[in-house]
Design goal:
It is a single chain. The protein is of the alpha/beta class. It is 41% helix and 14% strand. It contains 11 helices and 10 strands. The strands form 2 sheets. Strands 1-2-3-4-7-8-9-10 form an 8-stranded parallel β-barrel, surrounded by 6 helices. α2 links the parallel β1 and β2. α5 packs across α6 and α6 runs parallel beside α7. The termini are far apart. The N terminus is likely disordered.
Length: 349
């Protein structure tokens, strides 16, 4: 670090420490859902209910209305995918950018948290991503959560002309990407020379509204990714076991998530952290089961996963003629009636 960098660090750190949003600068990272932090929450307590809105609608032709309706329905967080395109049945249709969409959603809403589920290194660089996230956290008034994962072999993996990374390289890149992004969002000046990413006296001024930075929700199922979640995450995200997504039974899907949570506990032990400090987020749509069939089906599904340790359940907003097709009226009833039934004594028996 140069002398100028040291001076900038000294100059801006006190001012940053004074900027708060109803909390001290060094308070714990807020949870992904709208409720207050539930660190230490017990398995079986009612999970936060959130949604993911795919960026397939023009903003002035239903897009804005959908995000505003999500807030009216009381969802803890509304997420969106951060892809350039996604899967065959969406690739040749409308698909908008995640961060501009979330910026617009931040201006159209006031209470609900917003987030990506998930961003990956496939077409992102930590330096430019950090600047955009810091700006979006400011625009949203400190309501942003970054869902982040290692990425995969989808269309994003080759869109910039590169060869797809091997699973090992994806894991290695992710292992460098997350800690560097963490630093870029916490520190006013960052320099880094790594195997995959570099930063040369990058300024992160004035920093995030949320302190010490906006929360990370780290998607991971392997040991290296889970260790990143334990070290850097406010939450851990799972979509279940992809090997049984299409052919497994609901009981097998539930057991797979139980096993993942147990492995997450091992990773937290390695990181010297209590597993109860991490929110545990399930993105549905990829685990066996039909929680959107009815309110009763949702309550049964969510109750079982809450008992397994899941603290936030994310439902896809229905999209006709897709794998996320569902009755939107039933979906809205689940949003308004399901959480209260999960909290009722009868649902907890």
């Amino acid at each position: 670090m140069t002398e100028r960098s040291r001076n900038l660090t000294r100059r801006y750190r006190p001012a940053a420490a004074r900027r708060t949003l109803g909390a001290m600068a060094d308070s714990p990272l807020p949870p992904p859902g709208a409720r207050p932090s539930r660190a230490g929450s017990q398995a079986g307590s009612a999970p936060v209910l959130s949604t993911v809105i795919l960026p397939v609608l023009r903003w002035h032709e239903g897009g804005r209305d959908r995000w505003q309706r999500a807030e009216e329905l009381g969802f803890g967080t509304a997420y969106t995918y951060d892809h350039l395109s996604w899967r065959a049945n969406f690739r040749d249709g409308p698909w908008f950018g995640a961060l501009p969409t979330l910026t617009a959603a931040a201006s159209a809403t006031s209470r609900m948290r917003l987030g990506t589920l998930v961003t990956s290194p496939n077409f992102r660089h930590p330096v430019t991503l950090a600047k955009e996230l810091m700006s979006l956290d400011d625009i949203s008034g400190g309501r942003l959560t970054l869902g982040i994962g290692a990425g995969g072999n989808g269309f994003d993996a080759t869109a910039l002309g590169q060869e797809p990374w091997t699973p090992r390289e994806r894991a290695e890149r992710f292992g460098e990407f997350v800690p560097l992004l963490d630093r870029l969002l916490r520190e006013p000046v960052v320099s880094h020379r790594g195997a995959f990413y570099s930063a040369d006296e990058v300024r992160g001024i004035p920093g995030c509204v949320q302190r010490p930075r906006l929360p990370f929700a780290v998607a991971a199922t392997g040991p290296r990714g889970m260790l990143l979640a334990a070290r850097h995450g406010r939450a851990w995200v799972t979509t279940g076991d992809p090997r049984i997504a299409a052919t497994g039974t609901p009981a097998e899907g539930l057991q797979a998530v139980r096993d993942q949570i147990e492995r997450l506990g091992t990773a937290c032990d390695q990181a010297g952290r209590e597993a109860s400090e991490l929110e545990k987020v399930l993105l549905t749509g990829f685990v066996p089961g039909t929680p959107l069939d009815s309110v009763d089906a949702f309550v049964d599904f969510a109750g079982k996963y809450a008992e397994a340790g899941i603290t936030e359940i994310v439902l896809h907003w229905p999209i006709p003629d897709s794998q996320f097709a569902a009755d939107e009226k039933v979906f809205e009833r689940i949003a308004t009636e399901g959480p209260s039934q999960l909290r009722s004594p009868a649902a907890q028996q």
